[in-house]
Amino acid sequence: MANPIYGSGPLRSREGLISRPAASSDEIQLRIDPMHTDLEEEISGIHNKKKFRALEMKGVGQEIETEAKFQNGIISQLGRGRLTSLGASSLVKRCKMVETSDLFNEGLEKASKLINVEVA
After folding, report:
1. Cα–Cα distance between 112 and 119 in angstroms, integer?
2. For a Cys staple, 100 with which of 20, 24, 76, 104, CB 3.0–4.6 Å?
3. Is 111 exposed, middle or buried (0-12, 13-18, 19+ CB in 10 A)?
4. How far apart are CA 36 and CA 95, in angstroms?
5. The whole model's pTM is what?
6. Do 59 and 42 touch, CB atoms closer than 8 A?
7. What string of pLDDT tens digits covers the 120 residues of the chain?
8. Which residues of 28-55 are buried (b: 16+ CB within 10 A; e: fewer)?
């Protein structure tokens, strides 16, 4: 007997699926009710958000890697005493371009005074 809450079909379930006997005993046929297709859209939307976040994180990781390589190069030059005034000037300018905290900016100004480089 059909349940009026879940539709008029005798095999309609709460989840919107209908099961019908197939030709062979080991086969099952299922039909998804069109009322419940928003689940697919939701899953697809979540999957797309996950892809977008993964791409964002990859970009952030690449930026961090580039900056780490740059800083390691500067540190190794400082350790060998090979940082020229031109190199120091470009370092100060590069650091100034990066959005940083006030504390870092204060340290940058002190460092630029120590090496006699004007910060633009």
Report:
1. 7
2. 104
3. middle
4. 54
5. 0.39
6. no
7. 444 454 555 555 555 555 555 555 666 665 666 665 677 777 788 888 888 888 888 888 888 888 888 777 777 777 676 666 666 777 677 666 665 555 556 666 666 665 655 544
8. eeeeeeeeeeeeeeeeeeeeeeeeeeee
